[in-house]
Amino acid sequence: MIRDTEGAAAAPLLAVVERVKPGRWLAIASSGISEGMAHVPAGVGIERLSSSLFAVMSVSRSAESPLIGWLADTSDDESLDAFFTVQGTARDSERRELEMGRLPEVPDHAWQNVDTVVAVESTAEFVFFVCVGGETETVTELLAQPEARAA
Description:
Blueprint: H1 11-18, E1 25-30, H2 31-34, H3 46-56, E2 67-71, H4 77-94, E3 99-102, E4 114-120, E5 126-131
Parallel strand pairs: 1-4, 2-3
Antiparallel strand pairs: 1-5, 2-5
């Protein structure tokens, strides 16, 4: 079970994560990036969250790139630590590599393909997108432009 820093059960996180359908996307974002978007507020750091999250949530086996990270500063030690923490934890459970990009290059429309945003405490700015796995997956492409609807 995912627990916060005081050891109390973090039921809100589990409830939100369980609602993400296989093939859909979850974002793990630093508190500065996720401000105003987070479905689960920051309460723990990236190390604790990712080790707990990937223990209970599978990563998509169908998505071409199910793990994508964007860092504000790819030379910043805290950002790189977050990247390698997520990569190591996710790869331990699913044997997947994590792609890295620069945060300013995240297309605005990518956020429209994310079902849940989980915030983590960090002074560094980053976001990691994870395609959720499961028995039956219809993968939503994270970087796909949303379809325009006729009026």
